[in-house]
Every structure is written in structure tokens, then in C-alpha cells.
Amino acid sequence: MPYAPPVARLYDHFIFDLDGTLVDSRVDLAAAVNHVLRAFQLPILPLTTVTGYIGEGARVLVQRSLGPDAQDRLEAGLRIFLEFYGAHLLDHTRAYPGIPDMLDGLRGRGITLSVLTNKPEAMSRAILDGLGLLHYFVAVIGGDTLPTRKPDPLGVSHLCTITNTSTDHVLLVGDSVIDLRTARAAGVAFCGVAWGLGLDGLREAGVEWVVMRPDELVELL
Predict the structure, then answer these.
(1) Is pTM beyond 0.85 here?
(2) pLDDT at residue 4 in the model
(3) Which of 39, 43, 111, 204 is deepest in the core (most CB within 10 A)?
(4) What is the C-alpha to C-alpha distance for residues 128 and 124, in angstroms, rounded to an integer?
(5) Which DSSP string corresponds to 127-170?
(6) CB 120 within 8 A of CB 142
(7) Which CATH code is given to the segment(s) 13-24+94-219?
(8) Mean pLDDT in consecutive groups of 10 residues from the start of the chain, 221 residues
(9) What is the torsional sign of CA 179, 157, 14, 86?
(10) Whether residue 17 lies in the annotated active site
(11) Which residues belong to CATH 3.40.50.1000 in the chain?
């Protein structure tokens, strides 16, 4: 897997995924999932299992965690999850090492920064604000902001519109196949990150470009 951009391009707008890209939220998400399972007297799940379910929003996370025999509890489980998680967003969630310096470096070079995530927008903003990162981004699009969510390209199109950026100059940065599929659907360049949750999936999907450290995103400029 090459670790340099396949084609030299000028990027004016970086769109970042949140979980697994900017922040490590696995422990808090797993705690909320297991709170739901305990409420239903179901076996709790290890962190590695919950990690594999992250990326397509809260409903899918709860659905997968409940398993096929408890899908009748999905709506109630989702309510329990959102209430608990909303109260524990920042118990253990932290920015990955090097993320604040990377964002500083990009903004200092005049790059427009935004976030596109499948996590609800209010929760996403609360996490970014609590970690001192929200001010870097001109927009935050969550899974409930628009009628569709990743991998639908509407989020990218909306961000391009409100920032007046051509798709030719957009780089979507993420850690999962969902992010890669979003970039491909939107017709924008994609860069994977090696520190996130889905590197194996990105490799299997044939991703062309992965960075090992956040500062590599600044160096490419």
C-alpha cells in the first residue's frame, strides 16, 4: 500500500471523519452499548467486538450489538443508548495524539476544515467542543443533519456548497470503508489513517493512500 498521494493535487478543503479519525471514542461507545445490554439482561460485549460495529451511526451500532434474537428491542435500546452516551461523551474519549497540532498546521496554511460523521450532530459538536477542537471547523455535519448519511455523498456535496469548494480540491480523511465509499460516491480524493478503527477493511477495499501519522497531512502541503 503506497503512503503518498497517487497524484499531486492542491487541496483547499479537508473533510474529516470523527470517530477513529480525530477522536478515540471506543471506550465510551462500548460502555453505552453494554449499558443497553445490561438493561435487557443480555451478555455484555468486549471492546474489540463493539469496535467492529462502529462507523454507521448509533442505530446500526445498537442493532448489531443486540444481535439477531433481540431486534424487537431496537427502538428501546436506541433510546437507552443515546441517553446514557449523551451523559458520558467525554468520560474516556480523547483526540488522537498529534491531532491538535495537525489541525493547527492545516489551518495555518489556509485550509478549510470540516467534519462529516454518522454520529448525531449535537453529540459530535459536544465532543469537539469538550476537547477544544470545535473552533477549527467551519462546519460539522452529523448523521442526523441531512436526510441521508455516509456513504451517501450528500454530506460532501453540502460541505462543498457552503464552503464554495470544488470537489477537485477536496480531500476526505477517514479510517473506514464507509469513508472511502463516501469519497468515491462524491468524486473526491480520499486518504485513510492508520491509527483508526478500520485499517484492515481499507486495505481489503484497495485504498490507495494511507498516512501513518497526523503530521503527514500537513507535510503533503
Answers:
(1) yes
(2) 53
(3) 111
(4) 6
(5) HHHHTT-GGG-SEEE-TTTSSS-TTSTHHHHHHHHHHT--GGGE
(6) yes
(7) 3.40.50.1000
(8) 54 96 97 98 96 90 94 96 97 98 96 96 97 98 96 98 96 96 97 90 90 92 73
(9) negative
(10) yes
(11) 13-24+94-219
